[in-house]
From TrEMBL:
One of its GO terms (biological process) is homophilic cell adhesion via plasma membrane adhesion molecules. PROSITE patterns: CADHERIN_1, CADHERIN_2. One of its GO terms (molecular function) is calcium ion binding. It is found in: Cell membrane. Transmembrane segments: none annotated. GO terms for cellular component: plasma membrane. SMART domains: CA. The gene is Pcdhgb1. It comes from the Eukaryota. It is a single-pass type I membrane protein. Keywords: Calcium, Cell adhesion, Cell membrane, Glycoprotein, Membrane, Repeat, Signal, Transmembrane, Transmembrane helix. Residues 1-101, 102-206, 207-312, 313-350 form the Cadherin domain. This is PCDGD protein. It holds the Pfam family Cadherin.
Length: 350
């Protein structure tokens, strides 16, 4: 009997035969007690009674797949004689149960550097039906664009694997649906939430936003020389950046309140005559293990200021001159030099 047969349906049973005659052959029937079935009798044309099995309530194969009943025929003799037959009812399956996932929401944490094809989650759906009605296959359901390029599900095992490279900095969480479909076309649904965890796969990036060069050598201490942006797209300690200057440069680093901007300022007075330019390297290191670094090379030239007076080669020149020396004669040549450059270093005599 199919499990979807409606209550009230009758199923004919085999009639008993009694070789006696008269009242000794009059048969009545009895059925062992069952909440799902009862006995009904149908009067035949010849006056005999046809026993029928009457379905009293709906069946559910998943709760009970078979019934063992006993049909008894009793004649009208004195004493009465009886015969019995066993009635076995097998309930055949109907596809009345959809697949059911073991969880409504599956969660997983996946490192962004996990190799393609790595298994990180397995889902399970069961179907109470039998045969092909209970065979479950899995597939991606309602998914955002791009998810099929990053994740795949095995239709038979429910294993979910990476199908492409993940990038925490691009997307840190994915939410999509999975379908479980049985052989009769019924489906079950669940949700998969995947959190992508950060790996230290990005080095700090240094961007020079502005650079004042050349810098006047008489610029005061604290003058802003450069404005830099230091960024690491990683998260947590992997994205925490510290900076240092290398090279003998009269500059120091001042961090902004947010930490991503760095200001280079004069830390001591400049002297173009001592060094006309300064080459320095800014090194930014993150807090990952191992740490990643980024560098930027900065060249600052020093603009001359007229901070040096001309200096004679001698402090005093002594010349002996005959009294009859002709007018216009060269008595001595004096020289003076100036450490400044350009017009500041051009010397005139008077």
């Amino acid at each position: 009997i199919g499990e979807l047969i409606p209550p009230g349906t009758r199923f004919p049973l085999e009639m008993a035969r009694d070789a006696d005659v008269g009242s000794n052959s009059l048969l009545t029937y009895e059925l062992s007690s069952s909440p799902s079935f009862s006995l009904a009798l149908r009067q035949s044309v010849d006056g005999s009674k046809q026993p029928e099995l009457l379905l009293e309530r709906a069946l559910d194969r998943e709760k009970q797949s078979s019934f063992e009943l006993v049909l008894t025929a009793v004649d009208g003799g004195d004493p009465a004689r009886s015969g019995t037959v066993q009635v076995r009812v097998n309930v055949t399956d109907a596809n009345d149960n959809p697949p059911v996932f073991s969880k409504s929401v599956y969660e997983a944490r996946v490192a962004e550097n996990l190799p393609e094809g790595s298994l990180f989650l397995r889902v399970l759906a069961t179907d109470a039906d039998a045969g092909s009605n209970g065979l479950v296959s899995y597939a991606l359901g309602n998914v955002p664009d791009g998810v099929p390029l990053l994740f795949s599900v095995d239709s038979e095992s429910g294993e979910i694997r990476t199908a492409g490279p993940l990038d925490f900095e691009e997307t840190s969480k994915y939410i999509f649906g999975l379908l479980a479909t049985d052989g009769g076309g019924l489906t079950g649904h669940c949700e998969v939430q995947i959190e992508v965890t950060d790996e230290n796969d990005n080095a700090p990036e240094i961007t020079i936003l502005s650079l004042s060069s050349p810098v006047p050598e008489d610029a005061p201490i604290g003058t802003v020389v450069a404005l830099l942006n230091v960024n690491d797209p990683d998260s947590g300690e992997n994205g925490e950046v510290s900076c240092e200057l290398s090279g003998e440069a009269p500059l120091s680093i001042v961090s902004s309140s947010g930490g991503s901007y760095k200001v280079l300022v004069l830390a001591k007075a400049l002297d173009r005559e001592e060094a006309a330019s300064h080459e320095l390297v800014l090194r930014a290191s993150d807090g990952g293990d191992p740490a990643r670094t980024g560098t930027a090379r900065i060249r600052v030239t020093v603009l001359d200021a007229n901070d040096n007076a001309p200096v004679f080669s001698q402090a005093e020149y002594t010349v002996r001159v005959p009294e009859d020396v002709p007018v216009g004669s060269v008595l001595v040549t004096v020289t003076a030099t100036d450490a400044d450059e350009g017009l500041n270093g051009q010397v005139k005599y008077s």
